[in-house]
């Protein structure tokens, strides 16, 4: 054997316990981990397709939709974004991307790989788009698709979606929404709001491990897919195949790909917890914890990156790094002393902010208080260190 | 709330224990399930990238390669096929696909979605391609890529790969191999055999849950990727990004996508078991169990679909359904009475064969004997039923 077995796999795997209070993944509750102890089933066994059906019902509740096509891409959140782009866009289709952070940038990257005609309207990180601004852009660019990010995790901004759907319908545009970092933490009504495609990730508010990208397509979105002139470039993310595998199209399930069986179990259990709590309670819990965090940060003389509370997603709080403070020393203090993760910025917010996530299982007042306590210590520590220099 | 929480998620999830002796997924050992109990880490935490590095070393052993670019696509086996196509092919690139079952068909589907010039050489299910036939086709079609399936799970055929690499190098062709249903069960030497891209799935011989597609690219393959004129259509499967995230390119890891953390833990533990056993032992175990199964089936007067033992992959045995026997009644007997899965055919072998998988954790003489015992009962049962009609 010219390549011997590696030494590193002879030692036990080392996985420390951490409290993940960054912008995701968040921790999963024990029930969700335990679901993955259950034995594997075949990807088309009736007991497994039953579980897929249950997941689908849970997702219909979470997305607030009666749409037929509600399923999961068997990949993490980015796979949901890619599925949106590769199914909706044909070469030269115009897509309008409202960009105020990294997700709009990634969406533009993906759309351009599909040879779409990518038009971008930009705002600085932390800002959001108003209805009149969106309408002006729709009029100007006449896109086939408008792409918005509900919770921009790089800045902490919450983009209002209410009101955009009717505008899109007026201009014959499909509305696609990235709800990875927001869904379950804030209200979302796919049908009432007129959203045509929405996707999320399992590892945020849902609190399952990162593994799948739940996604829903409206009838209007499916009509565009079915009217395509060119084939969908991806077989794996082809929504017509996925919809069949997930039992959404009324036809017998065909073998598309092997579903990630254990991950589907975990998602099923996580959704059962979401449904047992109820969306109203989940939203209220996120709002209350975010308020407690924001109040506590203000009491520490810290400033939030987004000054208008209405523009903040409760799921990701961005905090300005005060002048003279080394942001990385603070995140290291959190991790090294307490094994608690908070993050620095990302993309346009890199170096400017800390990001604290409050998502699903981790969104509790105890965790908020712990973050505040450590933040105070870390800043005190740093001022001591600074004064020593 | 116009969509109420679904009733179905109020009941506990129902997952029966089954012995999966079909062509995959196969069962995972307890250690592998237990790995998924470990707490989540961030997708770029040093403890997690350490585990990714360990997975990479395990995969280098399994693929028998020193290549830098060894990683996983965060999707199941089909995602590996798609990553191969979308990275290697540009519009109008000629790809030659040796098609003797469903995987060659799917590969042709995927390649054509990428607007490649797809040339197919066909053989009936169960047949394999000889070196002189491949050379003649390379001469005729002058492809950029030759695609072979080592273990064609729809027919049970084992395509020899040895000798194809030098041919491909002679004609300036990249050699891509699907080893989903074979890797670990039969010898495979990426470097020695001159394979340029190889991928597999986690749920076959590796015996982890379906979740990821381990994949390796040679330097020659990466050179083609880097010389592309058009961007790789998929961001999610872009091997240059994946290679960076998996620490294969010597640059600091950037945030590409959120890796499926728990699935990586499971794969790490499964690979540690593979490495502890050693490839020679693993190959010998598969060969011995397959021999035991084939002998036992012959003793039951059943015929194997592939008559030449050298052309059979030990991982998937295809058995001719005798005339007058209802194949589905037999598979139902296995499942209903014993909760053991064996499968019918797939694609070109549908209705003609049963398929029995011997993969990794499930590849034991006890399981072989159990399958033989049930098969005898099922056939006896059916002849009784048949004689009653």
UniProtKB/TrEMBL annotation, chains A, B:
SUPFAM superfamilies xrefs: PLP-dependent transferases
Q: Which residues form the Aminotransferase class V domain?
A: 24-363
Q: Which Gene3D superfamilies does this chain map to?
A: Aspartate Aminotransferase, domain 1 (3.90.1150.10), Type I PLP-dependent aspartate aminotransferase-like (Major domain) (3.40.640.10)
Enzyme Commission numbers on file: 2.6.1.44
Q: Does the keyword Transferase apply?
A: yes
Q: Does the keyword Transferase apply?
A: yes
The UniProt annotation places substrate binding at 355
Spell out the InterPro entries in the cross-references: Aminotrans_V_dom, PyrdxlP-dep_Trfase, PyrdxlP-dep_Trfase_major, PyrdxlP-dep_Trfase_small, SP_NH2Trfase/AEP_transaminase
Leading EC class: transferase
Similarity field: Belongs to the class-V pyridoxal-phosphate-dependent aminotransferase family.
The molecule here is called Alanine--glyoxylate aminotransferase
**Species name for this entry?**
Scylla paramamosain
